[in-house]
Amino acid sequence: MIATGQTLKAVDEIKGRSLWVDARRRLVKNRAAMAGIVILAAIAALALLAPLLSPYAYDEVNYDIIACAPGWWPVETACTAPGHIFGTDSVGRDLFVRVLFGARVSLAVGLVATLVSLLIGVLYGATAGYLGGRVDALMMRVVDILYSLPFVFFVIILMVLFDRNFILLFVAIGAVEWLTMARIVRGQTLSIKQKEFIEAARAGGVGPFAIITRHVIPNVVGPVMVYVTLTVPGVILTESFLSFLGLGIQEPLTSWGVLISDGADQMETAPWMLLFPALFMAVTLFCFNYVGDGLRDAMDPKDR
Fold first, then answer.
1. Is position 6 within any domain?
2. For the chain: N or C, fewer Cβ within 10 A?
């Protein structure tokens, strides 16, 4: 019985760990990535709790305190009214609560549109790369055709057909961002589909769909995660561009892009209007990049 117990203990000690368990352990050890996750979680929590953190509404106008600096700002235009931590904008709205409400919109657009592009692009690119031949050529020609369509015209058409709608931002941006994702995944799939473990899966009778989902996609997660961290800030900037053109977020709703655009117009007279939304956006983008680097290192099968 003792020998049997020792044998079972030895078997438990040498039992292999899954890729996800190893990835989680390596990610937790990455201090920069964990700091980025904590900061992103804090920004998301502030955005969700925005109505409880300020006595002012995000669309509350007060013309008596137009372009009013924070009370601690070293200028004569500092706010005399209490509670304006970041000052007010050009029509007297509290900038602190508008920055937090802007975080809601910017993060929602960035994450949802990126998730849409991730789901479509990864499956599409992995399928095209694995099947190869005429199927691959046909699928990638579809991508080339979609690439040739002007993005702004596509958004304008959606706005005309379905009226101006906040949800259309997710549809319009997600419908374009997946194209690059598909190309990246296709290239990675072409490089690994002739590997020994893929050949072993084929020899074992595993079907193409199972090979794509179980073997191909997990081995392209590293490059995909890196590109996702670039896609989220890119989507946020795209939303800002559309809002600047009048095709995105409309007043009184706001986003970081809208706030930065408004702050740039008042940069010389009211620099705080540009500083705070730009600071929040820059910190968020840095955090996404650090998290992406951590995920890339943690989920690379070659580092197991």
1. no
2. N
- Flag whether 65 is in a domain: yes
Within 10 angstroms of residue 87's Cβ, the number of other Cβ atoms is 26
> Can you give 163-213 as a three-state secondary structure string?
CCCCHHHHHHHHHHHHHHHHHHHHHHHHHHCCCHHHHHHHHCCCCHHHHHH
Residue 53 in domain: yes
- How many structural domains is the chain composed of? 1
CB contact set of 107 (below 8 Å; sequence gap of 6+)? 43, 44, 47, 236, 284
- How far apart, in whole angstroms, are the C-alpha atoms of residue 218 and residue 116? 18
Instruction: Decide if 13 is inside a domain.
Output: no
Q: What is the DSSP letter of 68?
A: P
Domain residues for the domain of 235 are 18-303
- For 61, 77, 255, 289, the CA distances from 35, given in Å and listed in that order, are 37, 36, 24, 12
pLDDT band at 302 (very low <50, low <70, confident <90, very high): low
- 182-221 pLDDT tens trace: 988 898 888 888 888 888 888 888 887 888 888 888 888 7
pLDDT at residue 1 above 50? no
Task: Give me the mean pLDDT over the 28-51 stretch.
Answer: 90
Paired with 78 in beta bridges are: 69
Q: Per residue in 115-158, pLDDT tens?
A: 888 888 888 998 898 888 899 899 999 998 888 877 777 777 77
Q: What CATH code is carried by the domain that includes residue 187?
A: 1.10.3720.10
Residue with tokens 């595993």: 206
H and E: helices and strands count for the chain = 13, 0
